[in-house]
Amino acid sequence: MHNEPFCVSICELGIDNFYNRKRVKPSGCLEYCFPCAGGWCIPRIGSIVPEAVMLLVSPAGCGRHGAITSIQKGYKNRLFFLHMSESDIVNGQHLDKIFAATANILAEVDPRPKAMMICASCIDDLLGSDYEAIAEELERKHNIPIKACHMDPIAMEGSKPPVRTIQQAIYDFIPRVSKKDNAINIIGSFPPLDKDSEFKKIMSAAGIEKIRHIAECSTLEEFYQMGCSSYNIVIKPRGLMAAEYMKKRLDIPFCYAPAAYSIETINRTYKKLEEFLGMKLDTDRYSEKARQVIDRHYATLGPLTVVVGEIIENDSTYELARALIEYGFKVPYIIANRILDIDLEHINWLKTHAPDIVVFTNAHPSMTDFLQNNLKVDIAIGMDAAYFFPHAKPIPLRLDTQLYGYKGIESLLELICQAFDNPQDIKKLMYGLEN
Predict the structure, then answer these.
(1) By residue range, what is the domain housing residue 246?
(2) How many structural domains is the chain composed of?
(3) What is the CATH number of the domain that holds 200?
(4) Which of 269, 294, 343, 417 has the fewest CB atoms within 10 Å, i.e. is most exposed?
């Protein structure tokens, strides 16, 4: 005997008064944290600032995930912790300790960090602690740029979730410049664009001199050069807040061109970029090649059944589900909780072309019993989908790689083929044991 997992029809999503339009899970119930939420925690995101360190101020338990990830991903020497006790929380003494901890870090770390982030946790946000004022005082005292950021999952369902505010804090390091070059910044993704993407070739042929991404900057000075770019292209919704801020503070206009897997969506994205940049982009041959790749792989794979999860690198579960159906595959299930503004177009398309899709939320408490349903599909895309459908061939489609454009279609289909030729162990993937 077990509880039936909470689910809804795709046709119920996005309509007025459907629970919280931004979430599938009804409000007012507990949230289930499934054990595969991924490795891009706030400290890891902050670690992409070159030649910088982070001090996380929190209760001991809050820093555990960040500490383990820092060991796994190789940035443990740049992440420091200041644990607060219950008495600290009551009397606020931990705020005074930040000054001594910062001085100690800057004195002991060799080479001396050229920048620093001070990260607050939920408790200080609830207390109203002013970390921005603390960062400004530390910046004056130590003569290096120091910015405040927040690791506050309590804000996840608000208008300023931590995954967005951390990016604004990161790009706040960039100084304002008067001279611009004919370059583009890629904003929103943590890794740079996949090296095989046609994007760079198309932009270079159109006259763009350089494409910049923070993860490709090895020094702080190189990172500062992003302020010289004339354009920002936002490829993930989590980068929109930072792009708005950069437009206001650095005078860099932006275009929202999210990563996608549907040929029609990618076609529209490049047309949008043409209008934004004011230049012709030669994409026809890449689009035609992508169509041929889809036909070739479908002839080999046939009408597979696929479940699509939420922890995927393009951030739009519904767009990916649409693309897979356009390829000829079947998508009977979706695992997701968020409903982003960009999802509504694709949800409406799915209502018309695949009205039988069942949507499970990965965050509802009833999902603790989900595995007992023993639902079967051929392929599970995303770590959450793979966890809930353990008999399917898993395709992590992790946030450590950023596929983009028509080449992303080919890469996705190759991953599906590899899943059959060399299936991966979901438990090893979840716990980082695949190597």
Answers:
(1) 181-277
(2) 3
(3) 3.40.50.1980
(4) 417
Could you tell me if 397 and 278 are in contact, meaning their C-beta atoms sit under 8 angstroms apart?
no
Give the Cα separation of 294 and 286 in Å (integer).
Answer: 12
Nearest-angstrom CA–CA distance, 146 and 195: 32
Q: What are phi and psi of 338, to 5 degrees?
A: -75, 150
Domain limit, last residue, from 128, 144, 171: 171
- Provide the sign of the torsion angle of the four alpha carbons 106, 88, 132, 187, taken in this order: positive
Tokens of 362: 């990965």
**Which strands, in side-by-side order, build the sheet including 379-381?**
7-9, 358-360, 330-335, 305-308, 379-381, 393-395
Residue type at position 95: L
Give the Cβ contact number of residue 142 at 10 Å: 18
57, 84 in Cβ contact below 8 A? yes
Q: What's the Rg (C-alpha) of the chain?
A: 22
Read off the tokens for 4: 């039936």
The encoded tokens of residue 68 equal 């383990």
* pLDDT bucket at 1, cuts 50 / 70 / 90: very low
* pLDDT given at position 363: 81
* CA 68 vs CA 46, 55, 143, 400: distances in Å: 15, 15, 31, 17
79-83 and 52-58 strand pairing: parallel
Q: Which amino acid is at 21?
A: R
Segments in 115-224 forming alpha helices (H): 122-127, 131-142, 162-171, 199-206, 220-224
Neighbours of 2 (CB within 10 A): 11
* Residues 223, 179, 204, 413, Cα dihedral to 10°: 40
Same domain, 68 and 164: yes
User: Is-contact 68 81, C-beta < 8 A?
Assistant: no
pLDDT given at position 19: 46
- Of the candidates 420, 418, 409, 48, the residue with the CA atom closest to the CA atom of residue 196: 409
Q: Which residues partner with 402 through β-bridges?
A: 193
* Token output for 345: 């177009």
Nearest one of 169, 75, 51, 54 to 119, comparing CA atoms: 54
Task: Give mean pLDDT, residues 147-176.
Answer: 90
Does the predicted model carry a pTM greater than 0.90?
yes
23: which DSSP letter?
B
What's the CATH code of the domain at 291?
A: 3.40.50.12380
Which of 121, 138, 171 represents a domain boundary (last residue)?
Answer: 171
Measure the CA–CA gap between 117 and 136, rounded to whole angstroms.
11
